[in-house]
């Protein structure tokens, strides 16, 4: 099944993205990121790190930096500074395993 996933990778979306990238039933064509519990810069960085960890070459595109209707509520006090507190990836994102559009 061809999939485009739009997400804000904190822990919950990181798990969903991990499943999609590793289940042969899914053919992930694109990952887009948005601000959620943390900024879009941080969620995009999380998506890049997850993609590199699984040696995926799926393109990743940063999207909306804030919600369309209400003010962004940063929840890093709950989810950690990165939005994925407790999970540590290398700082090197890892060409050729990622592609930021």
What labels describe this entry?
101 residues; alpha/beta; 3 helices; 4 strands; 30% helix; globular; I/U_nuclsd_hydro_CS; IUNH
Order of helices and strands: EHEHEHE
Strand content: 15-25%
Could you report the average pLDDT, rounded to the nearest whole number? 87
How many helices? The count is: 3
The helix content is: 25-40%
- Main beta sheet: strand number and arrangement? 4 strands, parallel
Describe this structure in words.
This protein is of the alpha/beta class and 101 residues long. It has one domain. Helix content is 30%, strand content 19%. It has three helices and four strands. The protein has helices spanning 11-22, 40-53, 76-79; strands at 2-7, 27-33, 59-62, 99-100. A four-stranded parallel sheet has the order 1-2-3-4. The longest helix is centred in the middle third of the chain and has 14 residues, at 40-53. The chain is globular. The two termini are 22 Å apart. This is Inosine/uridine-preferring nucleoside hydrolase domain-containing protein. Residues 3-88 form the Inosine/uridine-preferring nucleoside hydrolase domain. It comes from Oenococcus alcoholitolerans.
In short:
This protein is α/β, with parallel strands linked by helices and 101 residues long.
């Amino acid at each position: 099944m061809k999939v485009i996933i739009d997400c804000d990778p904190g822990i919950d979306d990181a798990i969903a993205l991990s499943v999609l990238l590793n289940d042969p039933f899914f053919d992930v064509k694109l990952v887009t990121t948005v601000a959620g519990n943390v900024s879009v810069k941080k969620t995009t960085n999380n998506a890049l790190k997850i993609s590199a960890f699984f040696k995926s070459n799926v393109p990743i595109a940063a999207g909306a930096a804030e919600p369309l209707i209400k003010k962004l509520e940063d929840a890093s006090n709950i989810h950690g500074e990165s939005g994925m507190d407790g999970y540590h990836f290398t700082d090197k994102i890892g060409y050729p395993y990622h592609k930021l559009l």
